[in-house]
Amino acid sequence: MTSLLSACSPQANNSSVITTNADGIIGGTEVQATDKIQNSIVAVYDAFEGEICTGSLLPNNIVLTAAHCIGYFTEDMYVFFGTEITALSERRQVDKVEVSPYWENRQGEDFDTGDIAMIHFTGTVPAGYKPVTFLPNKRSLKTGMEITVAGYGISDGVTGDGVGRLRSTKVTISNLNYSTSEFLIDQTKGTGACHGDSGGPAYVEIKGELYLMGVTSRGVKDDNNDCSQFSAFTSTLYYKTWINRMATKLSKSLVNPDQALQK
After folding, report:
1. Of 175, 187, 198, 224, which one has the fewest beta carbons inside 10 Å?
2. pTM value > 0.85
3. How far apart are CA 51 and CA 200, in angstroms?
């Protein structure tokens, strides 16, 4: 049984995000503004639904996130910056969205759901932020290895507390080849991703540097919906070609006809 990991906590009205005193990512540690891990992680907020997700910053005002984080109305979606998301946090409005072509038909399946999307926001990137670095290949990966996950989700899968603060934690890959386009992480030791962490990054550390290898998707075998079992992640390596193609498309102007017609 699977459960999507979008925010399950109610979020204020269409113009603000609830501030909480608790922290996100179950069993994790609070990310500080000075921590290197935070400079490519953002929050993705759907003001219409009042739900929060997580995303990774790419070049040219693009964010990589989960397909199920995309709201009904692009104009009601925002990218938030900072380790704590409040009504006063710096934000940018989303103006363009691209969702995996598999999501529409595969979202109800147990495997290979295509739960990945990209959004483009207006304005400038705040100082201190930089694009994430992608893992170039699978040679360094194996089942059983430790990786890092991060997000703005809840810190308690039972009470639903803690949404809106960035946290990170280390987890173990339970099955690197869970499906053709996904891998599975083990959360049975009390730490991992939960509601609101959807779309957030999974990193592998190589020689002290973090490389993006996956996007948080959904809970697996989580009958109680408390994020205590396993989580599936969409592989960025599998979607590498699609990501590059959509990044080029989203980088083109909506208003400049000369740029829009460029190949």
Report:
1. 224
2. yes
3. 14
Tokens of 33: 């503004």
Is residue 52 within 8 Å of residue 163, measured between CB atoms? yes
Collapsed DSSP state (helix, strand, coil) of residue 37? helix
pLDDT tens-digit profile of 215-243? 999 999 988 888 889 999 999 999 999 99
CA distance 13 to 259: 37
Contacts (Cβ under 8 Å, ≥6 apart) of 39: 128, 129, 130
Q: Please check whether residue 162 is in contact with residue 155, taking contact to mean a CB–CB distance below 8 angstroms.
A: yes
- The conformation of residue 133, written as its DSSP 8-state character, comes to P
**The domain 146-237 belongs to what CATH superfamily?**
Trypsin-like serine proteases (2.40.10.10)
Q: Identical fold at 2-20+39-131+241-251 and 146-237?
A: yes
Is residue 239 within 8 Å of residue 64, measured between CB atoms? no
